[in-house]
Amino acid sequence: xxxxxxxxxxxxxxxxxxxxxxxPRYTEALTLQSRLLENLARVRxxxxxxxxxxxxxxxxxxxxxxxxxxxxxSFNALIREPGGVASERDRTEVHVNIENVTRSAVTVAGRxxxxxxxxxxxxxxxxxxxxxxxxxxxxxxxxRAAQEVALANLGRAYAAQGNFRQAVEHYEQAxxxxxxxxxxxxxxxxxxxxxxxxLRLGDVNRATEVLQQALTxxxxxxxxxLSRARTRxxxxxxxxxxxxxxxxxxxxxxxxETFTRHKARPELAHALLELGQLYHQRQDFESAYxxxxxxxxxxxxxxxxxxxxxxxxxxGSLALQTxxxxxxxxxxxxxxxxxxxxxxxxxxxxxxxxxxxxHQARRPVERGxxx
Length: 371
Hints:
Blueprint: H1 2-19, H2 26-46, H3 50-71, H4 75-80, H5 88-94, H6 103-106, E1 112-114, E2 117-119, H7 128-141, H8 144-160, H9 164-180, H10 184-201, H11 204-220, H12 225-241, H13 245-261, H14 265-281, H15 285-301, H16 305-321, H17 325-341, H18 345-366
Antiparallel strand pairs: 1-2
Helix pairs in contact: 1-2, 1-5, 2-3, 2-8, 7-8, 8-9, 9-10, 10-11, 10-12, 11-12, 12-13, 12-14, 13-14, 14-15, 14-16, 15-16, 16-17, 16-18, 17-18
């Protein structure tokens, strides 16, 4: 499968090279490039899914149609050409080096679902230099549309290595150009990505404002349901942090329904976890337990160690509050093992505190007293 994906990436480079910066459909090709690379990144991180395959097929259809209408041959034919193998340098210049984003990198220091890719925060450089070169070429040609896409791609690359302030700077520049060009669909996507990075930086109020704009814009341009659902998910997280729990639950439930319908399992698992924690805060313990157990089952199927640990920590806290210390200990012990494996020392310490409380609470129960 990796060789097939590399052929896609090489084909994208050839398509862009043949079109050239001045072609009226060059921006369309760049947008399809970005969508396909994000799809391939998700496959490499999570494995392939029915949703991913359907999305990839749609993108390939668009690429085939674009190539036929502009070059007189399909994209599939382009990637099969005997002379169509780009040099290693060409491939590096064209796309983010997604191979660097490995499963181990994803789980090193905790992460956040970043729209359709993952923020690792572990300091690994993921395609920054190639994206700088892409921006340099766009600036040299004076192509504003290419500059817009290059700035957004560089923002994504900075976000992927955890350099969120640089990501914010480049997203803001991309948004400004998108507005200048009246590229409303791209503006909506960049606003969403900016909002997630601001949330990561802890600027919840501004993240909320930006994500609200993104969601409104995505609905205006009739963006695909998953893109809107991912935006609702992140906006719901903002509302949760601001204590606007009712609004948070409404948005997260809407996102959950879409993720379920489209079988987007990683996103669904995170939505279930967020909802479980929110219902816990509202003292709806029955709903909290149901959502958290569903999240745990999904994270296990995904082999997501971090997700399992976070969910078991949440289940442990819930069990403690509902006077089930033995269950709390079992959940918290698994959470601790997961965090320790990921070297998340701050979470290990937090779980140790909860385990101490759980052991203290269990002693009266073992003697037959009320804890």
